[in-house]
């Protein structure tokens, strides 16, 4: 049986900063191909659907079309880091907390049409000395206060709905961040190992 993992992440998985093996999603895909080709005639495929500056609202808009095309039997959401980014001018987040909660519920409902194997992953910490403001988007900032608030929203949602959750806030340090937001190759390797071990421990792969 094919394991089709649909991953919805943002720039951290789309492109950001890992020039050795091209981010954690590709590392997971490489592991699955090597494992299945070695052990059986089955195979696993990981669909990387990360888009730069992706938010839960944008994922929700395109979810049906992407899922219908790929028919995933595992869906991993790692959203929130762009939702909690602060718009400095009015001191509000890109996606307000209540809207974020509504989006999580809507994404779960849509995902359940394809699988009951749904996983939420928080992104990572940020280095506030480099992200307040964000140099390439100076009208915006990212801080740990909002990061923790939105992470807790996801954790609570997962607990209430019996959904698997992977904590990432303790996986890497500031030294593993290239620019305060995006991991280095070493950071991606640490995150990949946390995700892979979690999927194995929970018999997802």
Written description of the protein model:
With 205 residues, the chain is α/β, with parallel strands linked by helices. A hairpin with a 4-residue loop joins strand 4 and strand 5. The longest helix is centred in the C-terminal third of the chain and has 18 residues. It starts with a strand and ends with a helix. The mean pLDDT is 86.
Major β-sheet strand ordering: 2-1-3-6-8
Rg, please?
Answer: 16 Å
Strand portion, in percent? 5-15%
Main sheet attributes: strand count, strand direction, barrel closure: 5 strands, parallel
Task: Describe the SSE topology.
Blueprint: E1 3-8, H1 11-14, H2 23-39, E2 44-48, H3 56-70, E3 74-77, E4 86-87, E5 92-93, H4 97-111, E6 118-121, H5 128-131, E7 140-141, H6 144-161, E8 164-166, H7 185-201
Parallel strand pairs: 1-2, 1-3, 3-6, 6-8
Antiparallel strand pairs: 4-5, 4-7
Helix pairs in contact: 2-7, 3-4, 4-6
What attributes characterize this protein structure?
single chain; alpha/beta; Rossmann fold; five-stranded parallel β-sheet; three-stranded antiparallel β-sheet; 7 helices; 44% helix; globular
